[in-house]
Amino acid sequence: MTNHWVDIKNANLVLIMGGNAAEAHPCGFKWVTEAKAHNNAKLVVVDPRFNRSAAVADYYAPIRTGTDIAFLGGLINYLLANDKIQHEYVKHYTNAAFLVNENYTFAEGLFSGYDAEHRKYDKSTWSYAMQPDGYAAVDETLQNPRCVFNLMKQHYARYTPEVVSNICGTPKEQFLKVCGMIAETSAPDKTMTIMYALGWTQHTVGSQMIRTAAMVQLLLGNVGMAGGGVNALRGHSNIQGLTDLGLLTNQLPGYLTVPGEKETVYEEYLAQRSLKPTRPGQMSYWQNYPKFFVSLMKAWYGKAATKENNFCYDWLPKLDKMHDVLQVFEDMHQGKMNGYFCQGFNPLASFPNKAKIGGALAKLKYLVVIDPLATETSEFWQNFGEYNDVDPAQIQTEVFRLPATCFAEEDGALVNSSRWLQWHWKGAEPPGDAKGDAEIMAGLYLRLRDFYRKEGGAFPDPILNLTWDYAILDRPSPEELAKEYNGRALADIPDPKDPTKMLLKAGQQLDGFAQIQDDGSTACGCWLFAGAWTEKGNMMARRDNADPSGLGETLGWAFAWPANRRILYNRASCDPAGKPWDPKRAIVHWNGSKWTGFDVPDFKPDSAPDQGMEPFIMQPEGVARLFALDMMAEGPFPEHYEPFETPIGTNPLHPKVVSNPAARVFKDDLAQFGTAKEFPYAGTTYRLTEHFHFWTKHAVINSVLQPQQFVEVGEELAKEKGIQDGALVKVRSKRGYIKAVAVVTKRIKPLMVNGKKVHTVGVPLHWGFKGVAKNGYLANTLTPFVGDANTQTPEYKSFLVDIEKA
Amino acid sequence: MALQSLDIERRSATTTPSPSVREPMKVAKLIDISKCIGCKACQAACMEWNDVRDSIGICEGVYDNPMDLSADSWTVMRFSEVEPEPGKLEWLIRKDGCMHCADPGCLKACPSPGAIVQYANGIVDFHEGNCIGCGYCITGCPFNVPRLSKKDNKAYKCTLCSDRVAVGMEPACIKSCPTGALLFGSKDDMTRHAEKRITDLKARGFENAGLYDPKGVGGTHVMYVLQHADKPQLYHGLPKDPQISPLVSLWKGMAKPIMGIGLGLVALAGFFHYVTAGPNEANETEEDEKEEQ
Amino acid sequence: MQLTRRQFFKVCTAGLGSSSIAAMGFAPEMALAEIREFKLLRTTETRNTCPYCSVSCGLLMYSIGDKAKNVKSEIIHIEGDPDHPVNRGTLCPKGAGLLDFVHSPNRLKYPEYRAAGAKEWKRISWEEAFSRIARHVKDDRDKNFVAKNAEGATVNRWLTTGFLAASASSNESGYLTHKIVRSLGILGFDNQARV
Amino acid sequence: MSNRSKLVPRYSASERANHWFVGITFILLALSGLALFHPAFFFLTNLFGGGPWTRILHPFIGVVMFVSFLAMAARLWGHNRITEADRQWRRHLGDILRNRAGHLPEIGKYNIGQKYLFWTLVLAILLLFLSGIVIWQPYFAPSFGIGLVRIAVVVHAFAAFVAIAAILVHIYATIWTTDSVRAMTRGTVTEAWARHHHPGWYKEVSKEAKQA
């Protein structure tokens, strides 16, 4: 999240779109009801279903699943057409005035540089027009047709209310009502907060949906404001933490990136990532990349990482391509994988196209499952009748299932959506012989290290030299690991302002990432978390919930990255002169000598407003990007593309380019996409508030609250198909079928799309063949095996199904 | 407000007043349906605190699970999809459970002394130790709340967490409610808070928003803020003007003295008739004369 | 007194009736009111965070015993932490039902192994589990480790084993997991953030 | 042996057994019913082993009584038809009570009082049975609407009141008409009793005795 949970109460308008906060994050949703009750806020919900967020909303508008870019594009067009934007903010804090490369074009659904054969873009033309002095060219007057502002206006001019209503199925007057309510927050002292989740991420154009929302918030001047921002409601309790720690195919801790196989020269690897400012006077914070990288390698390989061996740069595996879960299971399905570890993850239930996942797992030599619960994945080889019809004798995979502790049986820290690192304490012993995740990983690692010490083997160096200075070798304590990722000084660190004085003595914990050095004199597991465990102790365990500003800024509670800052880009909550846009909700301001306020300023503390440093300090140009340059796979401006399984079979904006041209699709998956003829209804999967994915079917209370698998069907479709409320129905997609009880409801209405009536069928995903709830089909039997062009997040939210009485 | 034998306002099947000199604060639970997202946290918290687990049932085509109150589910969410104005769909979700009436129908109907106790703070609590399982409370309750357990034939319902309130804490469901739809406090505070909520709702277009504190049962210690207070039946059959059924009032009110005195009189009438009019004897002499005639 | 046989009967029955009431003992004095004992009185309170979604609701966990050595601390109740600035003591239905996750009948208790083609689990020791898994890892890594790619560039990667990390485990185990997995050269490495 | 000591058979052994079976069950029902009806009588539950047992036994005994009462009613049905003679008696009810029996038509096996008692009990016990089923927790009550249960509860109470009152009158009448108990304990009555109280019935019986 750019802001945080409690900050939602400061909003004047809350837009819940691409998410269902009331069901997926009920206790976070409290702050929406608080905003309504104490801030006279309005709640707008835009969703294919009238869900439980809509139940308490002031206004609900239906939308066809997968068309959020059309809706938001139409909204941008509305804001620009009615001049409802925060002009000062847009001019100073976004790249509206930047001039774009003259070769950049967009026509017939494609941007310039498209290579159809590789379904990729050559993105060189998606750049700024550069001035001779190496800085980007700008036109402050916004008159030049090539400036971002005008190109954006021209791009979204096509998204008229009629076009939006035709694509999204949202009745025109309802779309215009939502636009009207949102437009009001363009006033400097009015803010809107957007709360989204997997409703936006789980599409083949998911990332671009979120970008469009960010553009809307930038045009309205809401980013950096209290009660504003673009807020991702993340799923798991520590999904933010593991993302920050970089447990992803192409990531290292602190959003550093794994080198590609072409980056053979260490200096070029660093240069590529420590971006120099492209506008005068900007901070472009990523210039510090080398410090963070060197300190990471010192933390991992200690003395073995030296200047001479480029701090073990070559010990890191180099990427040939992204090995995200879709790629891995595609390779596994082709028999190229031998082993797989599932630590607290249930891929058979969580990944799309369950048949392919089961088939792939069956080709493994060994599978290791580490989990507190008996998951479906651990018994993918077992026959559970129609729920998992396999023959164990045919499956030669050896499976190890190791019992892990759960949250209540271990100390440690979790990072929530608001980037708060919070410590928790163990309250009970684990059942039986269960061990903590760290203890299990240590056990495996120490065995492996012994084997390599005794027998040698392929490239043992990183294994043998991994730092392992824990008091109890096979039980690294959470405290030690937390101190390690916070970082410490390896040698005395002189104070830059006064070299005679020492900032830190060797062995002391770092106070923050400002103290990280690039000469190997500091070690830091994750620069972003520096400040979590300082010499003053465990900052994550702090429990002072004082809120002096009344805006929910509890800086004394736990620790937030970066540097305990609670609202990102909060410099943008002030006008260029440093005065807050909305005095009633001031969080930071310039007091003449430095930036100060209720939050840690997201800015260089002593940089006076007139020095021209802009709020978005991570960007080389210091301003937010309406034009995304080459950072996105399918275009600098978000464009509406249909889901791969589209109910209308075409794209009204550009029939020649229907779905995302830059999305990666494996050959045999292309054949497994259904068409609207065979599967006429739009299917979507989602969660219910009573269950958490596939865990709570193991908990009696939650299984009592939602005992049995069901699908939601609109009254009209049910009447058409003769489906009675409560009857058993069969829902089929190209990849398989599920049977479930039908919940016939008024809350899903057919939508008129492109002259055709599109029905939506809702498929909650909480059931499986392990647990105390009634057994059910894994919902991902239906979902397509294709992901977003940037993140590879599978398209769970939009696919095609047929439904009939079972 | 420690709740024990000195704080009893009324006790079932007890014709003499119970010790109730103390005047503790009257508590109340406010259910603000306009803030309720139907997440069932209250059901989960209730089951978990009271260590009761209902059986894992089936889906009957609606979100209501379990479908009805039971001896193991003392509160359930009832979902109703309604369109008060055509085209404007509303999903009204009501937390069903004991209303803790000021004049409890269950207590009036209960024949077993001490099985149902109304504390001075307004909580109506079942004391299953004295419950004989006759089900009269079900007959008496205007809101159809008490349920008999199949396991032990005792009646069960929401206790408003009398054990937590007794040590000064709020009920489990109220503490858990994520959106603040459930509130706990003195009945006056809750009524005042409701008024503020109602003005807010009226401002958002619900002209008929209002407080549901039915006088028919003397007011309740569980109150609703309804968006449509003029049509409570929209909320899955919330009774419009609930009161103890006149039949029950007759049965447990007038009938008792009539029956008691009536039978007493019949018995006494017989006795006094005997001592005054004497026995009805067939004396032999009279028979002989008749014989001869 | 002269009792005819019938009168004798009458007296006995009356006597029997009244005495049976006495014999059974007039109903024992019923307790006027009985409030359930407050079940958390002497339990141990621990602060924790809900493992489910990313709101990070603060929890109060109550386990039996006062940390005395001879007590196996078992959690008997979980409710919201009123001091936590986000949830302020509230919990959603998942959080309020956490007790049933901690005590789920499906909690795994012992390392288990399923042989190729087998139909059931076999319980094994931790020792055996670590050794056999480490052996699998070493054999597969040594066989399929790629030090240099086709163009001769140093890549040091191992693609034939993948790893899925838990998005509900703590930062500490996540950090340790990343340190180990990346040092093996694994690139097929993800967590729930991907989906 | 003088006609005074001559005895006239009135009730057979099985009739007597049936009557007392119904009688005893009725007493038990009345006691347990009163216990459940009025707090003052709740102590009576101790006769049945406490509150729950009272609630459990009452309906079962009720069914038993109803069945045995049906048997008795079937037997006495014929004798209890209200005839013209009975109506005449009814018109002079006040004198009878003051033992000033005028010359009225001869009484058959049952006088008008007994007949009214019979019909009252038939109606009351039928109502008790039906309403009893409706309020019988936990077996039958759940399958009836709450409105019906509420009506049934009042009907049950009222019918019970009537039945108990009727039985009190019945018991009193037996005490009041001396030497009546023997009819139901021994099965025979004195000839004088028969001639005095039920002349019509007496003539019939003696005629049959002559023909036999």
Characterization of this structure:
The complex is a heterotetramer of chains A (806), B (293), C (195) and D (212). By secondary structure, chain A is α/β, with parallel strands linked by helices. Chain A has 22 helices and 33 strands. In chain A, the strands form twelve sheets. Chain A has a six-stranded mixed β-barrel with strand order 26-32-27-29-28-33. In chain A, strands 3-2-1-8-9 form a five-stranded parallel beta sheet, sandwiched between helices. In chain A, a hairpin with a 2-residue loop joins strand 4 (106-107) and strand 5 (110-111). The model of chain A has no long low-confidence stretch (mean pLDDT 96). With 293 residues, chain B is α+β, with helices and mostly antiparallel strands. Chain B has two domains: 8-244, Alpha-Beta Plaits; 248-292, no CATH class. In chain B, strands 9-2-11-10 form a four-stranded mixed beta sheet. A three-stranded antiparallel beta sheet of chain B has the order 1-5-6, with no helix packed on it. In chain B, strands 3-4 form a two-stranded antiparallel ribbon. Chain B starts with 7 loop residues before the first strand and ends with a helix. In chain D, 32% of the residues are buried. The model of chain D has no long low-confidence stretch (mean pLDDT 89). Chain D has a single domain, classed as Up-down Bundle (Fumarate Reductase Cytochrome B subunit). In chain D, 67% of the residues lie in helices and 3% in strands. Chain D has a two-stranded antiparallel ribbon. Chain D has helices at 13-37, 51-76, 84-91, 93-97, 112-134, 146-176, 181-185, 191-197, 199-211, and strands at 7-9, 188-190. Classes of the chains: A alpha/beta (806), B alpha+beta (293), C alpha+beta (195), D mainly alpha (212). Chains in contact: A-B, A-C, B-C, B-D, C-D. Chains A and C meet through helix 2, helix 11, helix 14, strand 12 and strand 13 of A and strand 1, strand 2, strand 3, helix 2 and helix 3 of C. Strand 14 of chain A pairs antiparallel with strand 4 (112-114) of chain C, so a sheet runs across the interface.
Distinctive features:
heterotetramer, B: 293 residues, alpha+beta, Alpha-Beta Plaits, 2 domains, 4-stranded mixed sheet, 3-stranded antiparallel sheet, 30% helix, 19% strand, D: 212 residues, mainly alpha, Fumarate Reductase Cytochrome B subunit, two-stranded antiparallel ribbon, 9 helices
